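Per-record layout

source: Sphingomonas caseinilyticus
name: Aminopeptidase P family protein
length: 597
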Amino acid sequence: MSSYADRLAALRVQLKEDRLDGFVVPLTDEHMSEYVGSYAQRLAWLTGFQGSAGSAVVLPEEAAIFTDGRYTIQVRQQVSPTEWSYQSVPETSAAKWLQENAPSGARIGYDPWLHTSDWVKQATKSLAAKGAELVPVTRNPIDAVWADRPEPSKARLVVQPDDMAGKNSAEKRHEMADWLHKEGADAAVLAALDSIAWTFNVRGADVSHTPVALAFALVNADGTADLFVEGEKIGDDVRAHLGNGVRLHERAEFEPYLKGLSGKLIAVDPERSVAAIYQALDEGGARILSRRDPAILPKAIKNTVEVAGHKAAQARDGAAVSRFLRWIETEAPKGGLDEMIASDKLLSLRQDLGGLRDLSFDTISAFGPNGALPHYKGTAETNLPFTTGTLYLVDSGGQYQDGTTDITRTVPVGEPTAEMIDRNTRVLQGHIAIATAHFPKGTRGSQLDSFARRPLWEAGCDYAHGTGHGVGAFLAVHEGPQRISPVGSSQSGGDEPLQPGMILSNEPGYYKPGEYGIRIENLVLVVEKDVPGADKEVLGFETLTFVPIEKKLIDKSMLSDRELDWLNDYHAQVLALIGPQLSGDDREWLEKACEPL
């Protein structure tokens, strides 16, 4: 279909044929993934929205798209206001909007493989208040009208060696089995793709930038497991790696298998398992125990091997990003650069390292006003040339077998304004506040979030995203359950107690719509801190990312002695770690960039 308006019209025709008065379109897949394969990009196909979080509702005469504060500007640039109304989350939601806009007696369709059971209950209740009904579909109506919809990836799984994982799969499964015994359960469903990759020490290539494979699994109370994945994706090496303790099934056999678990007590994660899983277990007569996926917390708490691998990956990646920043500083004033040229150059520098498996997400190479879009994704239509007098923001990362990286730096092209310097300095102060925080064991990320915002709040400013997200070990760049974010925000997870071994981002920012954006991001590791005389166990952060922070955007007079010491100490560490990897002009540039302020 030639336009998004045509696609919306075709969907409405299909809904009428299916005897539905509306349909809910989430941006996820059968695993409740944040980033999804091309076959599951239904929201983007229907609306044109390219963000990584959102949903939509289609009624016969109305349609609405729901996004959070990260995408306020982007959704208006990519989605037509003629066909769609813009709705802000968490102020509203698809369920709340339906309660207000669905006509009495309406049949609103949903795909049970794309929504959680809790969402279904909430939406059912909301619609009942209007005399409307939520109806599960057996075939997604978007798939019926999406003629050239891609097929799911058929890439083969690969082994993540035990010497990279730090613990073999059998050990992980037996620890889950011990947990199942304590809970009195027979098995646990694993639906999250990164949980499956971590549990079985395998990786895949079914989702761009996230090394996971499309699969489901059950871990049983005897330590064995059943893995549901397309047979053509399993080679002899992976089969041997999995061993006799893992029974292999076709992915299509997962739902029938669940229906055969009559009388069994099955642990299911209500946040990460879709409603269809609950429905299949119910139909089969299984009993359901709602518990968090038993891989989630162990995966988040990195072992010593994973931490060491991450540090090694960060050191190499830091050299590539440092070389890139020197290149930008040298080439941008000459003219001829644009966002896509810069992004391609950064990719080539990472590739020069050797060992790059993929980027960890689409590089945010954002110049001037595009930098004000926190999750900007460049296209040929939005690509801006570099000019002078504004800022360039680059948020990027790499997937290496020993670690996943994520870093943001902001640099001026030409002379920055006093306002730019002020805002950047405040962002830096917030970044340092997180980096230097000490807090008692049991502290949640939500309790730390305001540390990063205070310098901006004092100037009447803020940013509409969390301060930090968890990061995987050659897995998802956005990993739960830990976050540094306000309670009640659209980005959940800020209520998880931080524990040693967790890796998070530290990324406060500032965005001036239509002009520029600023973000400073490093990754940090939660560690134990020795605080003399402390009454409680104290935790803090160890910074893992080492790349110079732009000094031309810092007002030294605004920094306290403690903040200045942190910055100078940080740059000394950058020079010590990255310096030996660089030579010639790159080394000379790094030495200057790391001189004390």
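summary: The CA atoms of residues 68 and 89 lie 5 Å apart. The chain has a mean pLDDT of 96.
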